[in-house]
Design brief:
CATH superfamily: Porin
Helix content: under 10%
Shape: globular
Structural class: mainly beta
Low-confidence stretches: none
Largest sheet: 10 strands, antiparallel
Number of helices: 0
CATH topology: Porin
Number of domains: 1
Order of helices and strands: EEEEEEEEEEEE
Strand content: over 45%
Number of strands: 12
């Protein structure tokens, strides 16, 4: 079950959704070889809140997810699922077609078969330049501060990463 509400008022947007999902025979990975195991019954419930503010050339966004993901057989936490996640973003649109975004992602701790995985925070930067006729070039730096973190026990994650691309969106200027 999921229910949501969204409201726009002048230069703001609010949304909230509440979810409560029961899953039979959830597949979860555990063990040294990432063996697939069956969780007979699982329940994931929580809420997500998002707020956007548009002020002139600035855009601000905050997104918060709080959840409780449990194996119903013993009320243990489901592996690799944080109870909380927060994303904060600020962006600026320059008059000459350049858009810059700064994003911070904060993720709470998770459990895995080898114990707790600590929470982490990442910062990403995106730049996009509009060339016109629906064409833009963009560049992105993920994990700007080269933070060490894990999504699963003993699995490496990328350090600082660089991306570049060209985007085409028909029907836009």
């Amino acid at each position: 079950m999921e229910a949501g509400l969204e409201h726009r008022y002048l230069d703001q947007r609010f949304s909230i959704s509440v979810f409560d999902t029961e899953v039979d025979n959830l597949i979860q990975y555990a063990g040294e070889n990432s063996q697939a195991i069956n969780v007979d019954e699982a329940r994931i419930r929580g809420f997500e809140f998002e707020y956007d503010l548009y002020r002139g050339d600035w855009t601000y966004r905050a997104n918060l997810t709080m959840q409780r993901a449990r194996d119903l057989s013993d009320d243990s936490r489901l592996a690799r699922r944080p109870d909380e996640k927060l994303t904060l973003m600020a962006g600026y649109n320059f008059d000459f077609g350049l858009n810059l975004n700064l994003e911070t992602l904060l993720v709470g701790s998770r459990v895995d078969d080898e114990g707790d995985i600590p929470g982490y925070g990442l910062t990403n930067i995106t730049a996009r330049y509009n060339l016109g006729r629906g064409i833009s070039v963009e560049g992105r730096i993920e994990n700007v501060f080269d933070k060490d973190y894990e999504l699963a026990s003993n699995y490496n994650t990328p350090g600082r990463s660089y991306f570049a691309g060209i985007r085409y969106q028909p029907g836009t200027n």
